[in-house]
């Protein structure tokens, strides 16, 4: 028998050595060693005090308030989105043209500033627009796309030059990506016309509501050439510059009847003015009124009386035979009572008669009396609304 162990025998793994349990007995402290205090056990949590009914109600109100604010803010943004959907350049132009179509010039002025001095806005009033024979009717309004603006660029600039001071201004607005161009079609007396409007973003109302400013008012200038002291549309008057006999007025498109102003006593006129897509120039021929003819006749009568008296018979306008210092007789026979011809600038009176008799002379001791029949000829002009009459001749009939 072999005394050595066999390698085929199973090798037994030694059992794990378990460390001895820690001793609960403290070692005596060494000299100078710090002894930490023994840990204090944490106190048990206090029981939760239930909320009182008042506190519960307050918490509920706070939660409801916060939720209400959130809902209101969300509703506000939704409302703003809905409202802003209708606050577009197209809608602003539609409101503007609708006011003009309805004869509401004052409202139109508030929507779009006419862009002219206050003194030039005489005929941009409700009275004038409501008294128009015809006003515009809106046919179509739509905002142009960027492609449409590019395609019609020069057409738009040319059309806008009526409303803007220069083409450069129109180009500047067209180059602004925030600007919008709106094309509007309207009819006047059955004829269609188109106008372009430039709109730029305005200051928001209540922080979130969009606004648009229209830069191109739909007003037209009309140069009136007339000798009237003033012109009138409806019950509105405007003076005419008497040095040039010309005035410029501004109106909304429409068909108007222009007459003399209410204070024009001696001149009258009546013209129908159609104002559409272009500025206009008109001549108003003024006719003398019955009051002017009466004024002329009064002037003629006074001169006749002077010629038939020694106080005025030497006036240069009296008949030649009457202008004599050596008269034994000078008396009126047939006064002048009519104006036979009344032109725009000249007139001829009816016939008058004055009887004269020269003083006796050594060659004619008993001269015969003579009756001088004549008419006055003269001119009339209206200066600053007042008539000026000049008699230049007394034409004898025989």
In short:
With 398 residues, this protein is α+β, with helices and mostly antiparallel strands. 25% of the residues lie in helices and 31% in strands. The protein has eight helices and 20 strands.
Model description:
Keywords: Membrane, Transmembrane, Transmembrane helix. 25% of the residues lie in helices and 31% in strands. It has eight helices and 20 strands. The strands form five sheets. Strands 15, 16, 17, 18, 19 and 20 form a six-stranded antiparallel β-sheet that branches. Strands 1, 7, 8, 10 and 12 form a five-stranded antiparallel β-sheet that branches. Helix 2 packs antiparallel against helix 3 and helix 6 packs across helix 7. The radius of gyration is 52 Å and the shape is elongated. The N terminus is likely disordered.
Net shape: elongated
Helix/strand order, N-terminal first: HHHHEEHHHEEEEEEEEEEEEHEEEEEE
**Are there runs of 5+ residues with pLDDT below 50, and where?**
1-18
Please report which band the strand proportion falls in: under 5%, 5-15%, 15-25%, 25-35%, 35-45% or over 45%: 25-35%
Largest sheet report: 6 strands, antiparallel
Q: Total helix count?
A: 8
CATH topology assignment of the largest domain: Nuclear Transport Factor 2, Chain: A
Mind telling me which CATH architecture of the largest domain this is? Roll
User: What's the number of extended β-strand segments?
Assistant: 20
Question: Share of helix among residues?
Answer: 10-25%
CATH C-level category of the largest domain:
Alpha Beta
First and last CA, distance: 199 Å
* Structure classification: alpha+beta
The domain tally reads 3
Q: Whole-number average pLDDT?
A: 84
**Gyration radius over CA:** 52 Å
